[in-house]
Amino acid sequence: MYDSVQRQEGYLAALREHQLEIDEDYILQGYFEEEGSYNVVKSFLRSHHDKVPEAFLAGNDLSAIGCIRALKSEGYRVPEDVSVMGFDDIEIAQYFSPPLTTVRNQIARQGMLVIDHLVRLIQKKEQGKPQKLSGEIVVRGSCQVRIKRDDLI
Question: Is 54 helix (H, G, I), strand (E, B) or coil?
Answer without folding.
Answer: coil
